[in-house]
Structure formats: structure tokens, C-alpha cells
Design goal:
The complex is a heterodimer of chains A (about 250) and B (about 250).
Chain A lengths: L3 E8 L9 E8 L4 E6 L2 H11 L7 E6 L2 E2 L7 E4 L11 H12 L4 H14 L15 H13 L5 E5 L7 H18 L2 E5 L3 H7 L2 E5 L8 E4 L14 H19 L1
Parallel strand pairs in A: 3-8, 3-9, 6-7, 7-8
Antiparallel strand pairs in A: 1-2, 1-4, 4-5, 9-10
Helix pairs in contact in A: 2-3, 2-4, 3-4
Chain B lengths: L1 H29 L8 H10 L1 H36 L1 H14 L4 H12 L3 H26 L2 H9 L4 H38 L5 H10 L3 H29 L7
Helix pairs in contact in B: 2-10, 3-4, 3-6, 3-8, 3-9, 4-6, 5-6, 6-8, 8-9, 8-10, 9-10
Classes of the chains: A alpha/beta (about 250), B mainly alpha (about 250).
Amino acid sequence: MSLLQFERVSYQYDSEDYNIIDELSFSVKPGAFHAIIGVSKRKKSTIFRLINGLLTPKVGEIQVGGRTIAGQKNYCGYMPQKDMLFPWRTVGENLALPLEIKGGFSKAERREMVRSALADVGLFGCEEKRPEELSGGMRQRAAFARTMLTGSELLLLDEPFSALDFLTRISMQEWLLMQHQKHKKTILFITHDVEEAIFLSDSVLAVTSTPSRTLSEIKVPAEHPRTRECLTRPEMVMLREKLIDMLRKQVMS
Amino acid sequence: MRKQANRGNLPALLFLFLLLILWQLGAMKINAAYILPTPTQILQKLWELREPLFTVHLPATMTVTGIGLLISIGLGLFLATAMDFSPLLQKCLYPVVVASQTIPTTAIAPLFVLWFGYTIWSKVLVTILITFFPITITVYDGFRAAKVEMGELLQTYGATRWDIFVKIKIPCALPYFFSAVKMAIPMSIIGAAIGEWLGSQSGLGYFSRRMMTQLDGAGVFAPIVLLSAAAMLIVALVGIVENKVVKWRGES
């Protein structure tokens, strides 16, 4: 049983005369952590936008939890590259946004949920702060907490750490792995960083530039929980080089 | 913070003081108060005429300004929202709004007097014509400053257009709205004064003109000083409200 299922999905932008996504089929099992890599940032983003409903497939069907996403709400939590914390709202008010839009929660309930979500990402007591008072890593954690508050099983993370400095980025990666261990959500993680991809994911989904009806899945030979040391293992080094090699060939072709 | 702001104004105040001294000396040398009164003569006049100025003419002008500005804000917000709501309305309205600014208001204002007589509405109309434009255009720009990605994020939460308007567009437009109002205040006072010049029985513009016919230079300037002071005071008040409401300017 898969959580997410693409059934021969095609998409074409109005301004173009070819399908950017062409009869794509793939599936994702519940609780999986997949990194999505590929040369074309646009192609990866299009896949995310098809899943989160900002784009509608021209042909084919996308299912989440066994049902088509058309008409479904709150089936995925989308975290864009920029944290998108609104400067006119406090951190707590920003986190409450998905709850406000979903509706059905009292103000006190929302406050309680936001409080525990903040505590969960290590930002206990930050609800009254303004986003600009937080560091880059803290902002990403707040944005992640906001994504968690959508209550969805499926999380779409679009290069969430790419704007952070190196040290912050690697500690955020370790932190995200811990969050995944704890909450067992299904995560799709777009990245252009091969090392990040193999450190985080169970398997890497490669979006090729040549027309392909599926995403090639490459298993990562490391168990959870992991530490950064696993990246120095020979099989991980080999995988990294293999993936880099594959991406370079795509750029050249 | 406040202290620092005051210190920031010090050079401007000193410079202004210097200009006033130069004016005083220059005017004393020319010695023709009906052409160029000295600042002290103006102040003296202001004091002598305090009774009619403050009880009759200032309230009259402020009433026109207030009514005109409120209608302008209402109209401007309505037009900006309509244009943001529908691309078709935007295509219809935007050029017309811009074209309305090419009308030389002072030239057609006498017509308004014919339409409305010496009531306040002829002056209110001048005020509206001058001020609704900056409010409409600036607030519309504010709505458009809302980033598309922000709306898209909310859409993935299941937000409606109304949610996006309330939770993103309005906050994004608020700093723009305050800028627009601060711009519109002096313009609305000018508008009211122009209206009074052209045909009125009270108001600071009317009073200034009456003094002109009597070759009373200081009397011409006194109501003008009052108009400027009123504009500065109201802009400062709006600035205080703005600082209370908009805490995030400069960061987005």
C-alpha cells in the first residue's frame, strides 16, 4: 500500500509545446524518506506543485492515501525553499496559519498546539517573538513546525536548508533525521546537494532529463539512526560518486 | 529611540531657524510688508487674528479637508481592491484613474462652484480629485507587493481568495496605505485651500485671499502658516498610529 501514487501523470506549461512531465508513474510508501535529485530544478518543483495541488495534471491521476487528490484538502504539508514567515505576524501567529485556514479550532486550542509544536522543534517560548529575531536555522525550524501543524502525513520539503550556512545546514540535517525518527512522517525532500540527499534519505529518487516514465530509485545503504560518519563508508562514498557522475552526464547530454 | 529621532531633527531645525533669520533680515531691509512681511510680523498677525482664524476659518478648512480625505480614502481603497480583484476591472479603471490626474483641477474648480454653490461640497470635490489618485495607486501597488509564493503557501493549506486577501494582501498593503495617507494629507489641505480661494465665505484659503485684496502681506501669510502647521501636525499623528500598527516595515 503506497501513500503517494503517480499514475501516468503528464503536465505541460501553457507557454511550452512539450510535456515537462510525461506519463510519469511512481509511488511512495508510508514513512519513507526520499530525496529527489536531478539537474532540472524546474522539473522537480513541477512534481511538488502537482502533488500540493498548485498545478493540476493535464493527464493522469495523483493519489494520496488511496484517493485522488482532486477535492482532497490537507493531505500534504508543503515547505518552500524560503521560510515564508510573514513579518507582520509573530512566530506563534505564523505557526497558527494552517490551523486558522483549516478552521475548527478555538483560539485556546490553536495556542496550545502552536506551543507544543514550537517546543517540539526546540523553540520553546518563542511564540511572541517576531520572525526577524530568529536566526536562519531557527526560522527554518519554525517553518518546519508550521508544516507539521498542517497535520498531514506527507511532507514536501523543497530545498529547505539550501540558504543556510554550512554548519547550520549539517546540524539541521541531523535535526531533521531526528524529527523523522520521532514522527514517522513520509518525507519528499528536493535537494541539489548529493551528500545531503544520501545522508538524509532511505532512497534517492532521480529525476532524469531524458524522457522517462518513472523516477529511478537508488537505495541508500545505511541504516537509521545515522550520524555523519556514515558518509565516510566506502559504499556511501561510491554511491555519492555514482550519483554525481549521473548528474554530470545529464548536464552534458 | 525617541531621543535619537529628536537629535536627528536638530540639523533641520537649525537650518530652518537660519532661513527664518535670513528672511527676517531680508524683509526688514526691503521694508515693504505688503509684499514680503517678516516672520515676526506674521506671528504678530496670527496672534491679532486668532479669534476669527481659530474659531471660524481653521474649523471650516479642516471640515472640508476631513470630509474630502475620508471620501478619498474610501474611494481609493474601493478602487484599489476592485483593481486587485479583477484584471478586467484593472484594465478598465487604471488608465481612467491616471487620466483623471491630467485634468487641471484649478481650472475646472470654478465649475464645481456653479454646480454646488458656496456649500462645502464644491471644495470637498476639489480635495477628492487631488487626493484619491495617490491613495488608489499606492494601495494598489501595496496589494501587488504581496508575493505570489506567500499566497501559494496558503493555498496549499486550503486557503480561499478571501483568506489570502485578509491574511496577506491587507498586511502587505498597510505600510503603503499609511504612506499614501501621509502624502494625501498635505494635498487635501491644498485642495481645500484652492477650493476656498475660488469661491467660499469661510476657510483659511478664503481668508488669505481676502487679506490679499487688502494688501495685507502678513495677513496673507498668517493663514498659510496655520495650514502648514495643521498639515504637519496631522501627518505626525498618522505617523504615530502607523508606528503602533505597522511594526515590520523594512523587513520582508
